[in-house]
Design a protein that fits this description.
The chain is mainly beta and 458 residues long. Among the domains are: 192 residues, Sandwich (Immunoglobulin-like); 31 residues, no CATH class. The longest helix is centred in the last third of the chain and has 8 residues. The structure holds copper (II) ion. InterPro entries: Cu-oxidase-like_N, Cu-oxidase_C, Cu-oxidase_fam, Cu_oxidase_Cu_BS, Cupredoxin, TAT_signal. This is FtsP/CotA-like multicopper oxidase with cupredoxin domain.
Length: 458
């Protein structure tokens, strides 16, 4: 829920117009968000018109108009973010949430952003991808003195180019980004643009990652690569909302990467084109169809497609470890190793002992293993046919014939037309094939030992 501590906000344009000269000379009251739910699009009540975006498990920041300038107020502060139902993390963010709110402006807008620092250390905000005066670029020490705790700085520039951008700290970056500080910035075109299509649905989110030990709540900020929570907008599946669209919609999804590795983002059932990057719209001659696009660190990718196929389509990072939550690592590969008998013997010594992974790791999804409090299940999420066995960077594109225009609510699970679901073969079973005899001297092994995995990690 947005706490409207201010006179101006999404639906309060009338009030904003009547704010006194004295009030306009004061700092705009910051608007805070306490919920991790996907907020409905923020329809512009003042300034130039545009078609707003929907931020997955996020929201857009209301502004006030002050003599033709769009004024926003960001507050950098510690926050508690619900990353998944039952799992809260102590992060740093802006205006009550990590990530911070999406800032939406229109090409040519004069923008003034007040940044109040309520962190225990200094701060500065960089406006990634913008053309702006050098002194507004937000690089602590290089283009400005850092913002001390308790102080408010003012950034002001014109949003010169339409496109998908982001903002993030450029002061003690390693810590502040590891703690969850960043947000999206969308500059909408001021008029019809030959390379920017009108779309029916426009989603955006950031890729981010954390290293939070199971049972704890604060990220380890020194981690460079071995993160255990791969998130979209500081949420992990099944905590990530679905992308709900109407069949035939032109859909745009804008994705930014502020993790420490690349993420090949993959959509089922449709082909898309990359129509924009943080450099702006992509010329039509440079677009090609794909079903996976790699989003490197510090990049934005904006993809578009016609949602022509009805159904519940998986949409996820294609690195399989990134669709897992905490504790995906440091477990030896045990596929093909026969534990029978062993577990019984160990159970005599250690009641409750459980052998993990002899039939693959899928059992983890259903295992009734007690997790420490405040831990996201490793791979979970129930679908209409059972466990989805996913965590982390995973969601679902729901394409429905009867989803109303502008309705972003979850329509529930897809009802498949009769005869269109993969099903069990009920004819004659496969005859046992004749196989070559096992090599001599290997009589005890009836299964090939799997290679790869995490050798040398222990
Ligand atoms: Cu990934």
């Amino acid at each position: 829920m947005i706490s409207r501590r201010s006179l101006f906000s999404a639906g309060a344009a009338v009030a904003a117009a009547s704010v006194s000269r004295v009030a306009m000379a004061a700092l705009p009251e910051p608007v805070l968000q306490t919920s991790a739910a996907t907020a409905p699009p923020l329809q512009p009540a003042t300034g130039r018109p545009y078609r707003p975006v929907v931020t997955l498990n996020g929201w857009s920041l209301p502004w006030r108009m002050n003599n033709g300038v769009k004024e926003f107020h960001l507050v950098a502060e510690p926050v508690v973010r619900e990353m998944s139902p039952g799992f809260n993390a102590n992060l740093w963010g802006y205006n009550g949430q990590s990530p911070g709110p999406t800032i939406e402006v229109v090409e040519g807008d004069r923008v003034r952003i007040f940044v109040t620092n309520r962190l225990p250390e200094h701060h500065a905000v960089h406006w990634h991808g913008q053309r702006l005066p050098n002194g507004m670029d937000g690089v602590s020490g290089l283009t400005q003195p850092s913002i001390p705790p308790g102080k408010t700085f003012v950034y002001e520039f014109e949003a010169r180019r339409p496109g998908t951008f982001m903002y993030h700290p450029h002061a003690d970056e390693m810590v502040q980004m590891a703690m969850g500080m960043y947000g999206m910035w969308i500059t909408h075109p001021k008029a019809k643009h030959p390379l920017i299509a009108d779309v029916d649905r426009d989603f955006c989110f950031l890729l981010n990652a954390f290293d939070i030990e199971p049972g704890s709540a604060t990220p380890k900020v020194m981690t460079m690569l071995d993160f255990n929570l791969w998130a979209w907008n500081s949420r992990v599946f099944p905590g990530i909302d679905t992308l709900n669209v109407r069949q035939g919609d032109r859909v745009r999804i804008r994705v930014g990467n502020l993790t420490m590795t690349n993420h090949p983002i993959h959509l089922h059932g449709h082909e898309f084109e990359v129509t924009g990057t943080d450099g702006g719209p992509v010329p039509k001659s440079a677009r090609w169809p794909e079903v996976t696009t790699d989003v490197a660190v510090g990049q934005m990718r904006q993809v578009e497609f016609i949602a022509s196929e009805e159904g519940d389509w998986a949409f996820h990072c294609h690195k399989s470890h990134h669709t897992m939550n905490a504790m995906g690592h440091n477990v030896p590969t045990m596929i093909g190793v026969d534990h029978s008998g062993l577990a019984r013997k160990i159970t005599k010594l250690i009641p409750g002992y459980m052998a993990m992974g002899e039939r693959g790791m899928a059992d983890m999804g259903e295992m009734e293993m007690p997790l420490p409090d405040n831990t996201a299940p490793m791979m979970t999420g129930q679908g209409p046919f059972g466990g989805v066995e996913m965590g982390g960077m995973f969601s679902i594109l729901k394409v429905r014939r009867d989803q109303k225009p502008g309705d972003y609510q979850d329509p529930g699970w897809f009802r498949h037309p009769a005869g269109t679901i993969a099903h069990e073969w009920t004819g004659a079973p496969l005859a046992e094939p004749t196989r070559a005899p096992a090599p001599a001297g290997d009589a005890t092994m009836n299964v090939r030992k799997p290679e790869g995995g995490h050798h040398g990690h222990h």
